[in-house]
Structure formats: C-alpha cells, structure tokens
Design goal:
2 domains; 404 residues; alpha+beta; Aminopeptidase; 27% strand; 12-stranded mixed beta sheet
Length: 404
Amino acid sequence: MTLGTAALAAMRVCDGDGRLLRRHPFCVEVVSRTELAHCRRWGSAFAGMRKHHRYYELVEDTIRQGFDYRYFVIRDARGDVLAVQPFFILDQDLLAGGRRMAPLTAAVRRLWPRFLKLRTLMVGCTAGEGHLDGDERARAESARFLAGAIREHARTLGAQMIVLKEFPAKYREPLRCFQRHGFSRVPSLPMTRLNIDYPSFAAYMERALNSATRRKLRKKFRIAAAAAPIEMSVVGDVSPIIDDVYPLYLQVYERSKLHFEKLTREFFCGLGRLMPEIVRFFVWRQEARIVAFSLCMIEGDALYAEYIGLDYAVALKLHLYHYAVRDMISWAIARGYKWLRSSPLNYDPKLHLRHLLDPVDLYVRHTSPLPNALLKRILPLIEPTRSDLTLRKFPNYGDLRGLL
C-alpha cells in the first residue's frame, strides 16, 4: 500500500501512549518493490555497506518463507527522500529463542495455541543484521520520523507487534527515539569480531592465544593433515557447484537449534552474479569431493564470515570448522584485512579463538499500550541471549546491554 499525496501533509507525531505531541512536516510512505523502482534514492541506499540495495533485492527474490516484503520511504519537509528502510511482515513466535521456557510454553499453548505468536512488522533484513540508510545526519532524522509514524503503519498493515531486527550497537544513539516512543531495547544473539592484524596465522596464534588453545589447535590440524589432503579454493560464483555446496549448508542449518531464515540455492547463486566485488566463496575439497564451504563478504578492512556448510560425515573427525577458520584468516591476512567478523551462534570455539562480541539489538513494542506494558516485563525473561551461557564468558559481555 502507499499513503499517497495525503501523506505529504503534516503527520501526527505521538508519544509511546498515543498522545499528540506536535505536527511535523514529514512523510513516511509504505511502498512495494515495484513502486520503489521509481525512487532514485534506492539505487544508492546503504552505499558503502556489503549488504546494500542489491542484497535486499536478492533476499526478496529468493527467500520467501511467508515474508511479506515492503519498504518505508522517508521524506523531509521539502519532499526529498532522506532514506529507504526495508521491512517485512511475518507471524513471529516471541518464545522461539527461550529454550529454558520450552516446557512451560508447550503447556500454555495446549490451551492457548497462539500464545505470544503475533503478526509482526520487522524493520531490517531477513538474512542478516539491520542498518539505517543514509549519512549520519539523515539516519538520526529519518529514525525520528519513522519512530513517530511506524505504529500507525503497523496497525494499517494488520501487525500487532513492531520489531527493529538486529541493529548493531553503533545505532543506539539515533534509535533512542524509538525507546521514547515506547519501544524496549533488548539484546539479540550477537555477531563477533576477531582482530587479525598480524603478519601471519602463526603470529596470531602465538600472540593472541594461550598455550592450551595453541596446543589443541595444533593437534586438530595434525589430525587433518594425516588424512587425505584438503585443498582450498576461493571463487566468486558457486552456480557451477551449487548441487555440491547447498546440501552442506542444509546440514549445518538442520543441526542448529535456532532458525529464522532458510537460504535457498537461488540466493547463493545470485550473490556471485549481482555482487561479485563483495562476495567470496571459500571451498574445501578432499579427493575432489567438496567437504566444506563458507560464504564470506567484504566490507572495509573486514572479512565477514556469513554462512558455513560442512559435510558431517568427515567434519567432526577432521575438525573442519577450525581448519576452515585457519584458512580464511590466512587468506585475509595475506590481503591486508584487519578483522574477521562472524555471524551469530557457535560461540564456544569463538571464545577460545579470542573473538569479542559485536552486539546487535532488538527494539520491540506492541501497537497497543496495555499489551505493550506487559511485553516490557516479559521481554527481559525471553530475550535470546539468556539461554546461551557461553556468552557470559566473553570479556565484553556487558556490551550486549550497555546503558538501557
């Protein structure tokens, strides 16, 4: 839907309980992908980021799963487009990450099947963390405009809950306006970062890791070396080998206890075609058979390890995860990258490899005041980081919550 010309007039800006504060000459429109084609701003949206507008288009084209993709177009008083913010609508289970409460949840849902399952408007990306479009000034201004209009849009679209999905901690200041509009900020499962500013992987091991970790890693590498040789290659397009690598992604996906998006063959193939300057696929073969692969993306001085696929017929025996990490770090160091950044989960090996947590936040509210008051009390009990005890062992665990 589109608000149309009437939306160019002053819109209501309310506080978290719906009281009118003032009128503001801005416009927040909801548009479809087809309508977005007429917006010049979209061609430069999220410029400089690895997940720019082409990534969002690919996600919409290849990852459906009941997601209804839309876009906010945010204009200033002159009608100029400040930013485009992608969002999607889905049925969200609020208790999906609360494994400790699973027995209680199951008992309640025998009587109330849709307990804490709500139609939800999510701002961000289905496959990765969310970002604010625009430069620093535009981000703060467009966030303020969006915070004032989003609840009305959510109600129009039939959503009961609104979530800003996995926004990095660097956006906490510009997104503070959402908290003033009744949103609660809670930590989501964090990404991680590892400093690899060393002359070699050997130097990283010697300077960054303790002796026990070094000893364990060397033992893992010796086991792999004693088997048939494993060879790594780096390619920009996996289309010719998608039938070999996609089942490996599914093996990892199906072993995970937490699921959100499920990537498709078309997603992996499209990345290399649409974003060859950013995407790198690492592929490991043993006796000509692909036994592991990793999808990585480049942004600035960092290599982002986004998704991994493993053949579990040999992966655990040969310690392929650590083998792959070693090869990716060595490749990145040789090309001058300073950081290895990684997607959430699998925190135990990252802890021992001396990763730090890269916090990402959820901003959540119910569209109605009374349920939102209850939600504020429930969220600290069900937020996803509570169920992962390994996170508490990281030295910067306190950064997940910061100053709430």
